[in-house]
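Most newcomers find our protein records easier to grasp once they have seen one. Read left to right, the backbone structure tokens trace the chain's path through space. Nothing more is needed to start thinking about how sequence determines fold. An example says more than a description, so a record of this kind follows:
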Amino acid sequence: MDDSIAPAIVKKVFPKGTELCLNGVADSLRSRFWMIPGKGGEPRWILPHEPEYALPVLNQWRPYDFFSRIKWKCLLAAYRRKSLGCIPGVLPLRVSVPVKSNWEHLGWSSDGFPVPVIYIGTPGQRRKAVLGLIQPQDRKVASIGKVPLGHSANLAINHEVDILDTLAKEKPGRAPRNLFVDRGKGFATQEFFPGRSSDRFLTESHMTFLADLAVPGETTSLREAAEYLGRQIKACDRIAPETRAVLERVLEEIDDPSPLPVVWEHGDFAPWNIKKATDGSLRAIDWESSSRKGLPLFDMVFFHSMQMFLFGDKELFPKAFREFSRQYLARLEIQPLLKIKIIKACIARDWLRCHESENLPRAVFLIRMLSSLRLDMA
């Protein structure tokens, strides 16, 4: 496993003066952790040695493909039996925290020190560590912390802070509340939402959640979206001629002045970012890619297209998508004939994001999706 990321995480997450020793002998249970690899050997989790601290976070984690679920269940079973050291690639860590220290850098003001459960994001400019800060007295998750690791992660975390502040006023209860922020360092702490992650399939609850994100009294149009996309695409370098031809055709097709309601756009509306509460209602986390002036249907299209990309789903628009997108348009009083145009605009916007962030495999997938769309499909 590439353990070079561990010192950087310890330096940012733990109090000043904390020392890290890989494969060290711990002087107490509270100083002992495990580093768990993900795909490709990259560190994915840093977990406290004692499982009762981490299980409140891990039990809500939900891998979606079959083999990942099996591996996850085996990992949890070994963790509960305190046998993680028997799993290849898992490394013990010793973290020595100074006696006179505090966790104010993460906004911690409760009695005692938190026990961190650390998830390490995938490599990239927006890479971050997400912390479940556990209250040691009752082993409950007190809050969720975010610490930047990639070059652009600071901007993304600060953007989410701004979004959450506005959502708390305009759409309370749909997103976590901010608890603490250090904008200079890009550190933020927010409310913890208990509950399992969403199923992979669209339901009426998903549709209702998204329909309720409409911004009253504000409108946009497909023409406005086409003009924006046209400017951005024109400024893009390194677009293959066949890709540019597909995009130019789409821009012509979506040029429509009909008014559309503006919606809050989550931007990463995938099952792992949607929490299902005990009463069945949905709430969303990870609003770093969001916008207050979004296009209707973007999140619903993203929900489906991302899973097609990751899991190889074959059906372009399954029955559930067709039905709930129809209900969504009716709720927002959008003409059904605009549906395929809106879908094309949403996929084109998603392509632009992927192109700009150099997510080339997904960009290629989205162009193929755009090329295969027909009027009768959605």
Notes: The domain at 197-372 is CATH 3.90.1200 (Aminoglycoside 3'-phosphotransferase; Chain: A, domain 2). Residues 153-170 form the longest helix (18 residues). The chain has a mean pLDDT of 91.
